[in-house]
Amino acid sequence: MCRWLAYSGSPVLIEELLLKPKHSLIDQSLHSQLGAETTNGDGFGIGWYGVAETPGTFHSIEPAWNDRNLRDVAAHIQSPLVFAHIRASSGSAVQQTNCHPFRYGRWLWMHNGVIRDFHEVKRELVLAVDPSLYPDLEGSTDSEAFFYLALTFGLEDDPPAAVERAVGLIEQVGRRQGIEHPIQMTVATTDGRSVWAFRYSSERDSRSLFYSTRVDTLREQHPEVEVLRQLSDESRLVVSEPLGDLAGAWNEVPESSWGVIQEGQDELHEFTPRPPG
Amino acid sequence: MCRWLAYSGSPVLIEELLLKPKHSLIDQSLHSQLGAETTNGDGFGIGWYGVAETPGTFHSIEPAWNDRNLRDVAAHIQSPLVFAHIRASSGSAVQQTNCHPFRYGRWLWMHNGVIRDFHEVKRELVLAVDPSLYPDLEGSTDSEAFFYLALTFGLEDDPPAAVERAVGLIEQVGRRQGIEHPIQMTVATTDGRSVWAFRYSSERDSRSLFYSTRVDTLREQHPEVEVLRQLSDESRLVVSEPLGDLAGAWNEVPESSWGVIQEGQDELHEFTPRPPG
Amino acid sequence: MCRWLAYSGSPVLIEELLLKPKHSLIDQSLHSQLGAETTNGDGFGIGWYGVAETPGTFHSIEPAWNDRNLRDVAAHIQSPLVFAHIRASSGSAVQQTNCHPFRYGRWLWMHNGVIRDFHEVKRELVLAVDPSLYPDLEGSTDSEAFFYLALTFGLEDDPPAAVERAVGLIEQVGRRQGIEHPIQMTVATTDGRSVWAFRYSSERDSRSLFYSTRVDTLREQHPEVEVLRQLSDESRLVVSEPLGDLAGAWNEVPESSWGVIQEGQDELHEFTPRPPG
Amino acid sequence: MCRWLAYSGSPVLIEELLLKPKHSLIDQSLHSQLGAETTNGDGFGIGWYGVAETPGTFHSIEPAWNDRNLRDVAAHIQSPLVFAHIRASSGSAVQQTNCHPFRYGRWLWMHNGVIRDFHEVKRELVLAVDPSLYPDLEGSTDSEAFFYLALTFGLEDDPPAAVERAVGLIEQVGRRQGIEHPIQMTVATTDGRSVWAFRYSSERDSRSLFYSTRVDTLREQHPEVEVLRQLSDESRLVVSEPLGDLAGAWNEVPESSWGVIQEGQDELHEFTPRPPG
């Protein structure tokens, strides 16, 4: 099982999110929780937006916090939008091109879960990727193929619809092969402005997903937590598991739904796979 | 441009072939020549047969002789059949799954050259790979796709025919896309008993390929070279470039041909791509 | 905490010891136990004797069984004397030169434990290393410094005496700095023929250490275990923790003692640090 | 032979200095020149100042531009003070702790050259390092030992005097061992505000060192070069070799001298080793 977090808000040092729980919204439990996953992980990755047009990424196949370059980068880059992912391989090679978050142009994508029996359905799914996108597939994971299917179905124009169509196809192909529950997922994707998060599984028993309460609410409830004063009202975290122990800090994303963190009002909707044809 | 060597004969320490020119058929020029390539390389790999059913491989993305594990392995494994390859990337990621030699079951495969404009033809070629083999493709190179096409066309039963059919397809697909000279190649492949080597290019101007003279002939011509006394008569090297300066040691493989090193009489034949259908 | 195992006996594939519990003396619990440590580990290493004068080593800083080269090497090398070690860093860099087993000439050395407050005593201990050995120190760990102290005190001539003198010095230097319990250790060292194992700690509460019962005894008690028929009577394992669930298979090395596995009769003695001067 | 560059001036993307010659003061020849060194290199490193108290560093042992993390970091970090170094090992291990620039607190250090016969003098030099600094030595290179000697002799208070004393000691120790020319060096060091550069060798035949002409002068001479308009007048490069082909862009640092790039007037002085006691 993978783990991920997505942050959007006031610019922060990446290490504030990942490494320094006591100086961040993420309390000390982050360290042990993320730590536990990290040392179990088969690759780690971060993505961030900053001074360039496209996001930067850093992918590591060493146990994450043994990677001194990663620590130094996390300690020296500030960003208003950060993705981080810990991978637990379900079989494909542990190599940088298999580490999340994946990038295409201005977009980032990360996935916790699995396309079941991917070995059986890989060829048919990859064939459904738009031929113009196909040659850019670099790794060998189910998650990257899923990303390219979403791109094929219009991720850049309408992310929720594109993911619903990609999942519809994955379920159709999988069921044709006799796979009972073809997909299990939480997904985050972003264009550098908004962050979309998805929670779904064919068996309707999806991995957990949480988003943080608005900072202004938290600030009212916890005037003693200093870091909250430095964050804008709209700063938000979306995470696989609740972090820290601030009462009232976390809301669970309901089963089979998607949400978007954006300028103005955030939204939360039902997620319904759309089978092709 | 990549470089490779294939050795078949009396069991030798792998380092004798790669690192210790003065104790081997390969004279000191090997060191500098291979050395030059090595430091220019985008990955290095060896494959060998020995105590197990399938061959072992070691793939490195560090400059080859900086990799201490590789040096130690080469110094501690004896084998009667060794492949070694230095990669110069034509664009795809530098990662272990892109390093030659590639392995499938008992087979090894390595390639010097290029499928031109691979980005344009990759999808169509990969689609031609047998669906049962497709999920085992792990990397993103033209050379691995070429290997899987040869497997699809019967490499395990009739290697020359399979490679001729794979090249026929690559040329057909490439020309349909307006690519003038779709393929440039020297290839070596083995099942652990015989070694097949191929020299071909669409423009009939192929990279060089050489095989060593029989050891008994060399021994007669050079009674002063001690190591020759330790090698069996049938020990052979096939290489991208002649190694060492033993007069009479090397024979060029002619343009558009293939040869096989095997028990009994070696053979040399014309290579003729066979377009499908 | 690190873990290690030392094997001496009939030649086996290294993977039989590390990876294939059901085909080896090491039962399935090895996999999970070693596995758990592995993924928690900050480096992994093996050393083995075989075709060359000096032992081979392979050091990895990736989670051990993600390292495909390591798996391939373990599956393709047979050896009658194997050391394996999983490192848990107590602070020094995760790099190959800090991975056990360390090698000097024909000798291998591995250590589970710690020289406490090494940062405080490092300079004085390293100064005590023989000046002719000093420049060969390559890493930055307490364990490598300990090895070089033992070499300085005559490891190659009388291993138990040399280790007793090295520990005597470490305790003297540590106590002078106010360190209550300067050393905690299990150590294995070998010259490729005999294997010496040590269990000691300043507080006389040392980490566990076990050696396997003679194979002939085991064979009598467990006629149903096929692999036992393939091993010579004198094959032996020394391990940090008992492996497998064969009743009667393991003997604990007593507190403050050392043993040697050698041709002829094995021995077990008391371990007594010898302070210098 | 190593190569390095130091940049101080208007904030630039690190890739502008290293990767995009046509958009930078460094013209296209950089790419091929640095490229040539890079692929020959035994490690690469960058250091930069930015959002944190201490500088960030990134050290790579892969051929530099194969390292995708390094490319991404260089493309996403802007900095007013950047060090970059390509290492050619003279024997010590290729590992991240041996890559320049070295860091201590706010200081960075990089060295092109060699302490000759370092194996012979290493112990005596390392013993001269202040005991409080000694435990922080992490690698095994002459260059890092040289840095720690300079720190011992007061680098943080008076860099030129500290380097003169360190070199004085290195020459004294070396000559006592019969080494004719104990040191060859160009060195750059910085506290994040000023950059000191040194050119010296015992044989008075030092490796080359150049600093760039003031940007205002260049701008006058080359009004056609757009990027010059974006840089502040005081932006400066110090490099092992002249880069680009802008006439009038480079000044050679004279033999046996040191200079400082600082706010206000830069300076250039004679360098005179100071033997201890």
β content of chain A, as a range? 25-35%
Mean pLDDT of chain A: 85
Q: Structural class, judged by helices and strands of chain A? A: alpha+beta
Adjacency order of strands in the biggest sheet of chain A? 3-2-4-1-10-9-11
The two chains with the largest interface, and their residue counts, are: A-D, 19 and 19 residues
| Poorly predicted spans of chain A | 21-40
Order of helices and strands of chain A: EHHEEHEEEHHHEEEHHEEEE
From the alpha-carbon coordinates, what is the Rg of chain A to the nearest angstrom?
A: 18 Å
**What is the share of helical residues of chain A?**
25-40%
Largest sheet of chain A: 7 strands, antiparallel
Number of helices of chain A: 8
Oligomer: homotetramer
CA(first)-CA(last) distance of chain A: 32 Å
The best one-word shape of chain A is globular
Number of β-strand runs of chain A:
13
